[in-house]
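Justification of resources, computational component.

The compute hours requested in this renewal are based largely on the per-chain cost of generating structure records like the one below. Each record pairs the submitted sequence with a full structure-token output. That output is archived, and it is also reused by downstream analysis tasks.
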Amino acid sequence: MLQRFIFCIICLQFSLFAAGQARTAPPEQANQAGVPSGQPKNVADAAREVTANAPHLSAAGPITLQVDATQVAMKILHAHLTIPVSGGGETTLVYPKWIPGEHMPSGPITDLAGLKFTAGGRPLVWRRDLTDMWALHVATGGANQIEADLDFLSPASGSFSGGASSTATLTVISWNQLLLYPQGTAAHDVTFRPSLKLPRGWKFGTALPGAAQSGDTINFAPVPLETLVDSPLIAGEHYRAIDITPPGEALHHEIDMASDSDAALEMPAETIHDYKQLIAETGALYGARHYRDYHFLLTLSDQVAHFGLEHHESSDDRVDERSLLDDGARMLMGGLLPHEMTHSWNGKYRRPADLATPNYQVPMEDDLLWVYEGLTEYLGDVLAARSGLWTDEQYRENLAAVAAGLDNRPGRTWRPLLDTTIGAVFLYDAPGAWSSWRRGTDFYDEGELIWLEVDTIIRKQTNNAKTIDDFVHLFHGGQNTPPMVKPYTFDDVVNALNQVAPYDWRRHFTERLTSLSAHAPLGGITNGGWLLVYNDTPNTIMRAQDAGGGANLAYSLGLLLSREGRVADCIMNSPAYQAGISPGMTIVAVNGRRFSPDVIHDALAAGSNGSAPLELLVENSDYFKSVRVDYHGGNRYPHLVRQANEPDLLGQIIKQHAASVPAGEPQMGAPTIR
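The structure output for this chain reads:
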């Protein structure tokens, strides 16, 4: 029955894909199952919205936005807006809902408070839309200008930029959280004149142009709303800006850092050099830049949400406070900045058409995230190795961990990769429990494997005359430009790849996007001259991840455990699952001894030489039970090993491509003094 059910699901998926192709593809492709292409329906929806809301368009003149961050230590920001309106009795203002790069309606409306509207000093009545919670209808009484006051309550938890963003000594300002704009307007058609007041003595960094500081207030030149939302700001009492512009590079690049201590800002000299090399490597890879200058906004704090979020001319990168000081933590963040910078080309400049919406209220469609995020994950990790942020061995250990995680994910047998992209809207906030069965936003990792395979296929098809670098030059490069968006469809990806190396790319991608195979697509690793294996030697990346406590036993017992033994996840059908262990339980004792990560690792090692089952005392809410796990495979960790007599394509992929940046050379670009 299960096999028949899976077969029916596959048939249904292919029928749906074929139907989409029949509507949009040329006649010769009409009967070929594939990913729907053509103009996304949300573009048409957006056009209708603009027409329907034409009466709400802003009158001439910018919206003034004054942000007061002087109480940021209390986790509250204040904003005052002056909004020209077109007259009439009512206008509709909206709070940004679909935040670029977050791939879901994550605009933190819950934390918007203290909302008041006035005109000429008199209060105005407003009401929230009954179906769109991000839309506010304001009775203007015929005024041609209204004032709005609002507070943003900086949360202690949450996802992406809607998560914790402030401490007593620093903040990251995401402008979309502090503004309203007229419904129906395109983000490039409405202009804002922003200003920001910071706590006394704080310094700041941002890619937002036209900054003029007077005391603790920074006034910015008027910019389109899309530029404002695309240009967050980092500020703090403990702040440092590092110029990482390599010699000969015309555009300025810098890392703007804020932390809860000065000590955390001491980036090692060799790491600074590697980031300079990263800039050189991106120039060699893409062949063009689509920004005026570039800022990494790096927050080092244990009190903020940890993630990376891309922007055209900057990235919002947040890691643990001591990430630059600890060797393991610095290694773990090695792929973060290369990933987010890669998005400047793949995600911001080249963007799936169904993500290139005209404003922040039009729903985004995420079915091409395996390109947007997956290709970025691949290129970002390759750049980390090429620039020296990772050694070759660290790159391979990371790739082994990625491949093993996907190859031991039973959820693959019911949820295809394509559904993880479409479901990103809810999967980003999915709990970690049962993630191996539910699947999550693993299109990042699986996308990395798919694009590694693409790279090796190009090399084999062209006898190493072409590589994925040629595709990137063609698709993401071109001429240097300021920030702009060049949308693409699935067909555009296929056509560009065929210009580099003719192949049945449509079928290739369709098979991987719709596969219900229990195993990950490891063709790129094997084509690259390597094999995925398991042994009892700890994986370098996994060991660094476990350094803060806990134990990753995914490839032995099938468990992810906290420092205290709490089961964060259990892999379906693993030895632990078969013994009755599930997420939320706690392992109290191992073979009669109180649990610790070392105790369970030692027990697994000892068990590989005997036949006695592992004895675990497990707490489930208020109940305890003794569990026997019949497992004797010892500790198991993933690694890559070379295939005999096969060329090392993986080594060729990650070797340095740009000229070496000399150590200690003076850097071009304007000095940063703040």
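Residues 2-24 form the longest helix (23 residues). The chain has a mean pLDDT of 91.
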